[in-house]
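PROTEIN SPECIFICATION:
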Amino acid sequence: MRMFASASMILGTTALGVPLAPVSAAPLPPLVATIPVGVEPGALVVDPQGPAAFVANYQAGTVSTLDTLRPRVVQTTPVGAGPAAPAVDAHDGQLFVANSDSGTVSALTLRTGTLRRTIRVGPYPVALAVVGAGAATHLFIGALGPVDAAGAVGARGSVTMIDAHAGIVLRHISVGAHPTALAVDRRAGRVVVLSGSGATLLAADSGRVPHRTTVAPSLAIAIDARTGRAFAVGADNAVRLLDTRTGALLRTVSVGENPRSVGVDERAGRVFVTVRGPLDAVGQPRQRGHVVVLDATTGVLVAAVRVGKGPDALAVDGRTGKVFVVNDADNTVSAVAATRAAVEKTVPVGATPVTVAVDQRDGRVLVTGLRPSTVSVLDERGL
């Protein structure tokens, strides 16, 4: 049986000298459901018009379509090998999934989860974003490129631009090695691509390259369209603040050892970065990690919130002002209040949780787990 502390409060500081927000124990809410899905579920995405979510099952080579209101699998669709990075085109009623091991993108119908078409894009697509609406919708796919003579992947990365409505490849854009993350600023009409050589800005309507910025190799990115800022999480334990219109580097903020993911709450004007902290010899966290909170306009470090052990993926619900953090080393999810920068509750989920998403329409939090291959469904009202 797992033991929890009573209403004691834990205070301290990070290595950066930032005060840690207090953590208080509270009764755990009931788990709504645990849904078996395909082998090795990874990324998942929610249909904003709901109630539906889509899970990319990497090892199974399938996509599971979930009913989030009556938690169950309603469709399992075979796609390509190694599906990852799903993205929704709500306007055209499509779901796109990058199949990293088969060099393709699958397009599925949102309403039924059935396969519409398969588009070949090149070796090892790993990142994907949808921009625009209707006939003007474009799909941008970051691909690592072919295996080189030394057997390495990623030296010649590119982004493929596709007409999402017609399924036609429009152009291939060279962006440098390992383009593993991209995000969209719809107000600025920009797609920001992170690679091993820096950040590349693409025009969303044409795919042309107005600017490149040299930054350290980065792991994740999030954009605040309200301020026109991009936040790139670097492998050098820093977050870089970029202007999405000009590509200018505005600020570099040290956040602690082994940062992983980033998310933005535009209403609260806050940016959240998960930081795992020091690792042992086999790469496991030595202690509980934290979430660093930054000001979305200036990039100034506001607070650090201690969460569970091994914080990784996160999801932001701007409607309720909550941030949900997956702690994969202790199999929990922490709910953080965005404005107060404090943990409100930590709940156990399935073993080895991987990713998290929020169904804002129906107030559900979805968490994929690897052992066994499941999706845990939580009622957000109890978090």
